[in-house]
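Section 3.1: Structural characterization of target chains.
Under the original work plan, the team committed to producing a structural model for every single-chain target entering the pipeline before any wet-lab resources were allocated. The record below documents one such target. The sequence was received from the expression subgroup and is listed exactly as submitted; it comprises 369 residues.
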Amino acid sequence: MENESKTSIRKIIHIDMDAFYASVEQRDFPEYRGKPLVVGGSPEGRGGVVATASYEARKFGIKSAMTSKKAQQLCPYAIFVRPRFDAYKDVSRKIREIFSRYTDLIEPLSLDEAYLDVSEDKLGIGSAITIAEQIKQAIKDELNLTASAGVSVNKFAAKIASDMNKPDGLTFIGPSKMEKFMEKLPVEKFFGVGKVTAEKMKRQGLHTGLDLKKQTEARLIQLFGKTGKFFYNIVRGIDNRQVQPHQEIKSISAEDTFSYDVGRGEELDDWIEVISKSAFRRLQHYQIYGRTITLKVKFGDFKQITRSLSFPTPINELEQVIDTAKLLLNNIDLGEKKIRLLGVGFSNFGEVKIRERYDGHQQTLFPND
């Protein structure tokens, strides 16, 4: 029985590239190296939000999802560049080719991170730590970039571990230390816990995994809905989610057609808030979070456009959704045009298999775009 339990232990690696977009820019353009670089937004803080920032920029407090105006205030000497998604996709493809040397069980979460199940690796290496080391070295040697890796027996712990010693880190959380590790973890580090949920937890006296562990499952469900069950299990080191190499990821959205065409102003801002709240409620219902927000705009002449913004981490706060949707709208030159329809959507899911959450029913975001 003991041998059976040992062989059933999974070996999961989470690879997360270090400041991916910014690192690719600094690799390709030597003049950016060693300087505070911001990908996204615009020079002199004229609009937009930060997609990612180099480590030199992060020292000033610049981080993803921050407005470029705020970033420019924190570091007046920051260099702003437009994202080059074709370049990032090309690098991401090469990274996955490196992963595939070791396993076919690869679950991409975004261009710059993925889970790998190496319980049975192609090369017969056996050690997940050794495989993680080799992957990191191959990325460094072949692509001149660095990655951080987390190694553990489940997805949650591997993902947390990959963030512990950035950049260029490797952290292992073994089964014997799992529960103690979870007990010490601040609630902000748990998946799905954003600023609002963290504040709610702290009002209940829940500051760490140990505080969560002291609660009954029924109490956690009462406080946090279905996510309460996840909290109950994860603080005990239980996470049975499989690495899903063939996810079919769709999108969730909400939209509204106005009874009359609306011009820019307070009324339009109010509509953005209403539609964002409606879309966000759907995410909460299914307990899933995307990394990309898309704004859909149909004008009075029935012409339609979309604008999207992606973030390196899942969007799990309503305020961030509303602010991003407003920024996307403000970056559209309306001129004299008025708007007939607005939509807000989410995509780029990684943590959840959408088809399971929808019980066989899927929803596609703006299929006619």
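The longest strand covers residues 252-262.
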